[in-house]
Amino acid sequence: LRSEGMRLLMRKEIGKAEEKILAAIQRSRDSLDPAEEAETYKLLIKLYKDRQGKFEKCCECYQQRLEALSKDEDLEGVNETLLELGQFRLAKHLDDSSNEADLEYSELEVTDMGLQGALTYYEENRDRDDTKLPDAYIAVGTIKMLLGDQTSSVDALVKARDLYDAMDDEDGSTRASALLTDVKRIMDKVDSTSVTPVS
User: Fold this and answer.
1) Contact 156, 137 (CB under 8 A)
2) How far apart, in whole angstroms, are the C-alpha atoms of residue 129 and residue 77?
3) pLDDT at position 162, please?
4) Residue range 105-127: mean pLDDT, rounded
5) C-alpha to C-alpha distance for 20 and 41, rounded to whole angstroms
6) For residue 102, is it left (φ>0), alpha (ψ between -120 and 50) or beta?
7) Contacts of 97 (CB under 8 A, 6+ apart)
8) What is the SS3 assignment for the chain?
9) What is the CA radius of gyration of the chain?
């Protein structure tokens, strides 16, 4: 069913693809196969990710994928998905900020919490694989900007830039440097919009 859904998605038959993928998820649950369920949710995320009005639905799919990965005791998969979800939510926050929309403080904190979890994992496992660590630092640095924590933002972005430099990743280094330059501009934009703390 999952492969059928994938073929339909590649043919852009979205409605039929969604139906097959949802059926595949149910089948994996019925057969108590969390690894297959997690992989199928990955496909459903791809289906929803770029569709207008599907942000919340996509976030729900990420959460369901996280639950399945946890059941499968796939710690690497859990943290990779935490980072992807954080980056997805972060893109929405930045888009809202550039459009001068209100930013909910509680929503920013949820994004920050997930990204911090992923960052801790990649910091602790950097000897095994450090390729995702600079991406995690960039994401954390950016959410800290939006939360108004300029010191933590700069610290994370400097670490990201230095890691990219060590990896000879010019694109990553340039991105981190540009974000460092933009800290004050983004902070000013956040200050000019209403970030509403939730008591």
Assistant:
1) yes
2) 13
3) 96
4) 95
5) 12
6) beta
7) 103, 146, 186, 189, 190, 193
8) CHHHHHHHHHCCCHHHHHHHHHHHHHHHHHCCCHHHHHHHHHHHHHHHHCCCCCHHHHHHHHHHHHHHHHHCCCHHHHHHHHHHHHHHHHHHHHHHHHCCCCEEHHHHHHHHHHHHHHHHHHHHCCCCCCCCHHHHHHHHHHHHHHHCCHHHHHHHHHHHHHHHHHCCCHHHHHHHHHHHHHHHHHHHHHHHCCEECCC
9) 18
Q: Which residue has tokens 């949710």?
A: 41
pTM (two decimals): 0.85
pLDDT mean across residues, the chain: 90
Rounded distance, CA 148 to CA 19, Å? Answer: 42
